[in-house]
């Protein structure tokens, strides 16, 4: 019986890859669409405010809107992750019980879920900054400038992909400790990039 459980555990663990990968692909496909629709909604809101003689939205208020959208995605992911945790921990059948006994499964799940929440939240802020700076290229004829703007648009995808890859590492033998450390570093990097890009955008607007 013990051997049967040991053989079933790895395959069961890798079944969690498919939902996580599907979420990542769908999120990144929809990212430009979400940005475009949010821009339209924000513009309509601003026109309405002007018609009512209210001040226009400030940069900070726009960033708050994007942070709220990202936080909504993060909460949705956390809820799905919670349901996955409940299912995989039913009757004590933790997928990492044999692979990484050094850390509690719930601690690993909490760190991973919080990381994804933070990354998705701030990735939308980064999305708003890099897409706005990309659309505001003053000299579109310069190839290097256009390439640089397009490469910056990959930053949110890279942050999200790094979070997903770190989640995959936790499925490996003894990978929960490494993934937990990487998750903390990834959150710090995401917040730093967000702060740096927003600061650069603020300086450019002056």
Architecture blueprint of SSEs:
Elements: H1 2-14, H2 17-51, H3 59-88, H4 105-135, H5 143-152, H6 155-169, H7 175-205
Helix pairs in contact: 2-6, 3-4, 4-5, 4-6, 4-7, 6-7
Task: Report on the architecture of this protein.
The protein has 206 residues and is mostly helical. The protein has one domain. Helix content is 80%, strand content 0%. It is built from seven helices and no strands. Helix 2 runs antiparallel to helix 6 and helix 4 runs antiparallel to helix 5. It is elongated and about 65 Å long. The protein starts with a helix and ends with a helix.
Number of domains: 1
Average pLDDT for all residues: 76
- DSSP helical segment count: 7
Largest sheet: none
Quickly describe the structure.
The chain crosses the membrane at residues 63-83, 103-131, 177-195. With 206 residues, this protein is mainly α. The protein contains 7 helices and no strands.
């Amino acid at each position: 019986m013990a051997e049967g459980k040991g053989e079933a555990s790895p395959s069961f663990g890798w079944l969690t890859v498919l939902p996580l990968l599907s979420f990542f692909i769908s999120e990144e496909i929809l990212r430009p669409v979400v940005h475009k629709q949010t821009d339209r909604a924000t513009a309509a809101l601003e026109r309405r405010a002007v018609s009512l003689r209210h001040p226009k939205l400030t940069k900070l208020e726009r960033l708050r809107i994007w942070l709220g959208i990202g936080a909504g995605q993060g909460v949705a992911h956390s809820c799905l992750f919670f349901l996955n945790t409940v299912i995989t921990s039913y009757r004590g059948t933790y997928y990492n019980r044999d692979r990484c006994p050094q850390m509690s499964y719930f601690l690993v799940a909490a760190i991973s879920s919080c990381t994804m929440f933070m990354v998705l939240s701030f990735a939308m802020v980064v999305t708003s900054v890099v897409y706005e700076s990309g659309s505001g290229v003053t000299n579109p004829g310069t190839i290097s400038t256009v390439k640089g703007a397009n490469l910056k648009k990959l930053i949110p995808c890279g942050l999200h992909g790094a979070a997903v890859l770190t989640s995959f590492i936790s499925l490996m033998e003894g990978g929960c400790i490494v993934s937990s450390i990487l998750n903390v570093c990834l959150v710090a990097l995401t917040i730093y990039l967000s702060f740096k890009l927003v600061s650069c955008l603020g300086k450019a607007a002056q």
